[in-house]
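Narrative of accomplishments. A recurring question from our advisory board has been how the design workflow behaves on a single, concrete structure rather than in aggregate. To address it, we present the structure tokens for one chain from the evaluation set, followed by the sequence designed for it. No filtering or post-editing was applied between the two.
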């Protein structure tokens, strides 16, 4: 997500107090958001990015060298192992190169992003959200930052236990009645799949959700 996120100010204010915090970033692209997320006090940030072209760029960033950032060169999916990853290329703004790649094939994305080229695919390593949490002994998550280009359903299907222990989820969404990637969950689908979450704030393509149960447990 290369434009400055509308949720940034809210997140920095909500998590600005000292104390340990766990963030998971699914779809780190070139660490643009990773950089400021990792500067929040007390954060340990688990970042996932599967595109090898972005990974080469990431390795030269300051955020990559931060000790509180743990990079996984994998995609978030509904299963562990490998998955097909459709590459995007070209953009009228060079900063957006490779930012529309997805584990789901583009459908309406051809019309929505007419200046982007899709088609070539590779196999990449993938993991579920629950496997990631188990491998790192993560019991509670303060924030999941998801920029998965149509794979929101996969994140949810592979992350039931982790999402139940997650306080906030920030994600892109596809408006009802549209489909940008094959089988992509719409806004209404996301809310139906996450019955314990309620909307904190909604923007034209992004939504911040709060897990009522997890937030209540943390406050208690």
């Amino acid at each position: 997500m290369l434009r400055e996120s509308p949720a940034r100010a809210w997140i920095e204010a909500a998590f600005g107090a000292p104390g340990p915090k766990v963030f998971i970033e699914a779809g780190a692209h070139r660490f643009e958001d990773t950089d400021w997320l990792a500067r929040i006090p007390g954060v340990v940030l688990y970042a996932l990015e599967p595109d090898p072209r972005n990974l080469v760029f990431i390795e030269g960033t300051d955020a990559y060298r931060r000790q509180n950032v743990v990079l996984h060169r994998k995609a978030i999916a509904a299963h562990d192992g490998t998955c097909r990853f459709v590459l995007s290329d070209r953009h009228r703004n060079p900063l957006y190169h490779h930012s529309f790649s997805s584990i789901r094939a583009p459908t309406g994305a051809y019309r929505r992003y007419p200046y982007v080229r899709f088609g070539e695919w590779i196999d990449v390593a993938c993991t579920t959200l629950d496997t990631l949490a188990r491998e790192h002994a993560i019991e509670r998550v303060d924030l999941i930052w998801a920029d998965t280009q149509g794979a929101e359903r996969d994140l949810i299907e592979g992350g039931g236990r982790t999402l139940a222990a997650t306080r906030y989820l920030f994600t892109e969404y596809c408006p009802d009645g549209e489909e940008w990637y094959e089988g992509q969950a719409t806004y209404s689908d996301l809310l139906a799949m996450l019955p314990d979450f309620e909307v904190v704030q909604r923007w034209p393509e992004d939504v911040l959700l709060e897990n009522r149960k997890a937030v209540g447990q943390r406050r208690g």
